[in-house]
Amino acid sequence: MPQITFKAAVESIPAVTEFVDGILEENNCSMKAQMQLRIAIDELFSNIAHYAYPDGEGEATVAADFDEPQRMLALTFIDSGIPYNPLEKEDPDITLSAEERQIGGLGIMMVRKTMDDMTYVYRDGQNILTIYKKI
Amino acid sequence: MNISKQLENNALTIALQGRLDTTTAPELEQELQNSLDGVTALRFDFAELEYISSAGLRVLLTSQKRMNQQGSMVVCHVNETIAEVFEITGFSDVLTIE
């Protein structure tokens, strides 16, 4: 399973995207799924970069596993930061006016709605978040 | 991401090319802070924009709130991916999309 460890920083996002793009292009991913995955990577990795290590620097690993017969890509994000389960986050109210709107939580909601599945487990001091997408 | 601006009287068109995400949203935010004085009609042209993440939505929302005070704002030439993002997040109700 190909995986790369990155510095848990916003500056790493283009490199994470490039790593995943490589896998998608090898497997003839549709443009639509590729765009949705790029957005998901931006949301999930920026969450790690902003919140996982409040006291300093850390790392995050991204692992890709492609189930060819099912055409299902599993992307796993692993960090050793503070425990955080994004699946427990409630969806924000998306019916409010511009003045009342909050952005918090929109990213995770978008990921949830555009991916086929999403799982989270905290194990051995690590946040392990996996998204599944048919490509 | 490339940002190009065209100002005609008080109407400003901002065309974006590339990705509006965590890495690039601060550039747009900066650009808007410096460009909106006296603008009464703001138009975003997304014809060359590939996708937008929540970091980009944040900047659009800030901009919409400001334009609510001083004029109007429209977003045009939105691709399928971006239209889906606006739909899922309810931004299709907050923004004026042409």
How would you concisely characterize the structure shown here?
The complex is a heterodimer of chains A (135) and B (98). Chain A is α+β, with helices and mostly antiparallel strands and 135 residues long. Chain A has helices at residues 13-26, 31-52, 106-114, and strands at residues 3-7, 59-67, 72-79, 117-123, 126-134.
Give the SSE map.
The complex is a heterodimer of chains A (135) and B (98).
Chain A: E1 3-7, H1 13-26, H2 31-52, E2 59-67, E3 72-79, H3 106-114, E4 117-123, E5 126-134
Antiparallel strand pairs in A: 1-2, 2-3, 3-5, 4-5
Chain B: E1 2-8, E2 11-20, H1 25-35, E3 41-52, H2 54-70, E4 72-76, H3 80-89, H4 91-94
Parallel strand pairs in B: 2-3, 3-4
Antiparallel strand pairs in B: 1-2
Helix pairs in contact in B: 1-2
Question: How do the helices and strands follow one another from N- to C-terminus of chain B?
Answer: EEHEHEHH
- Give me the count of strands of chain B: 4
The name of the CATH topology of chain B is Transcription Regulator spoIIAA
Q: Helix segment count of chain A?
A: 3
**CATH A-level architecture of chain A:** 2-Layer Sandwich
CATH-defined fold name of chain A: Heat Shock Protein 90
Q: What overall form of chain B do the CA principal axes indicate? A: globular
Strand content of chain A: 25-35%
| Low-confidence residue ranges of chain B | none
Strand order of the largest sheet of chain A: 1-2-3-5-4
Shape of chain A: globular
Number of domains of chain A: 1
